Amino acid sequence: MFRIQIIIFALWMSLIPYVFATTPPTPPNMTTPNDVVCKVQEAAAQLSQQGKAGLTEFNQPDNKWVWKNSYMFVLDCDANKIVAHPFPSLLKDNQQLTKFMEKRKKFCETGSLLHGGWLSYLWTEPATLQVMRKITYVKSVNNTAYQVAAGIPDTGISLEELNKLRCYSGKKILHIDSYDENYGWSKGIRSGIDNVLQDSGVELKTIYMDTKYNTAEEFGKQAALRVKTEIQNFQPDVVIASDDNASKYVVMPYYKDADLPFVFCGINWDITAYHYPYQNTTGMVEVELIDSVIKNLRQYAKGDKLGFLAPAELSEYKIAKHHGQVFKIDYSQQFFVKTFAEWKQRFLELQTSVDMIFITNNGGMKDWNDTEAQQFVEENTKIPVGTQHDFMMPYALLGIVKSPEEQGEWAAQAALQILDGTKPSDIPLSRNKRGKLYVNMRIGNQLGILFAPELLELAEIIR
Hints:
The strands form 3 sheets. A 7-stranded mixed sheet has the order 13-12-14-15-16-18-19, sandwiched between helices. Strands 1, 2, 3, 4, 5 and 6 form a 6-stranded antiparallel sheet that branches. A 6-stranded parallel sheet has the order 8-7-9-10-11-17, sandwiched between helices. The chain starts with a helix and ends with a strand. It has 3 domains: 33-161, 2-Layer Sandwich (Beta-Lactamase); 172-287 and 405-431, Response regulator (Rossmann fold, 3-Layer(aba) Sandwich), CATH 3.40.50; 289-401 and 435-462, 3-Layer(aba) Sandwich (Rossmann fold), CATH 3.40.50. The protein is elongated and about 85 Å long. It has 16 helices and 19 strands. The chain has helices at 2-15, 33-50, 55-58, 95-102, 104-111, 159-162, 184-197, 217-234, 244-254, 290-297, 314-327, 340-353, 370-380, 404-419, 441-446, 453-458; strands spanning 66-67, 70-76, 81-84, 117-124, 131-140, 146-153, 172-177, 203-208, 238-242, 262-268, 281-286, 306-311, 333-337, 356-359, 385-387, 398-401, 430-431, 436-440, 460-462. The protein is α/β, with parallel strands linked by helices and 463 residues long.
């Protein structure tokens, strides 16, 4: 029991720098603060053109400014009253509204700011009598005394952060993905980008280079020419380039120190291979959480010999090299494979030649079969196997998994900073920090490992 407690403590301590609780996405029937900002600004621009005659539309309960769980109303700051509201019955004998209008000065001051602003207050929902905190964005209408406002339930985001939100209607971001839309890591990065840009007004387009399975140099160069044509046609304001090949084939040869700003992400360890940074770039470097994975694999291994199994790809050679340079990891055997059949062969060889194995991903192997791979691994695993990707967990005992969403979110946030006027070179380079513990109970049971309950409470369980 004493040994198990020490293992749990070591595992928990090794995870501290990486544990991250993600915020769940906004439900589809709930509007987002970004959406509120864009719609209110659009409404204010329309009302500025139409003047008093434009108020009629805001009084209709089925107008376009009533959407999801929000609606807009119009204040007249000179008259100190609401002059347009889609649900006028809410205005009758409403003590809260009276108190609300007593805050006229605060609303009008906030709405008169350059970008408008957010306020927070308690509100009783008339239908349910539930008291809730509400946040409202208000924006002045040019050349009038009007202000347009819309509120939503409190999101937990501070007013300081809310007031940083901008609407980017008319702006374009192109995302160059080195791989393809079905690759797990690519899907995670795209999800992170979408989480940040959702309802921001940005027009986002993704182009896939498809170099995960097509590794020939000439294919990469032709894919880069396709991307270059897309950039010329789409005319983006900012480009996000994810993973190594987008930088190798597109950014470095064609856009070094160009006027067009780029944000890179998912580059494994060494950005100097592409001579980064440039004046027009910033980015997030992808680093492995390998030290924590191996530290915890050792708890279940009979010795210290470590094997490495990966696809024969540029990024995987870089990873193995940096494991040695940065973490001083000495792999007893390293295998880089091109086919699923070869992967299985090397996996079997490592079972008897080392004490534990680190596997990276299954990219580049067109003949890979998930079902067959899981059955094969469960039948043939004799030693602990670790990984860094959640989609490889069916074939490993444990993993401390890095987050592709973190890469995408950081890149999108940097892109928005650039749209706000920040120079790419003024945005510091970053490295990923998030990680999540996974444990595969099927393989654990096969190896006769009894995981402590305290450890399992920390982990995502694969059964």
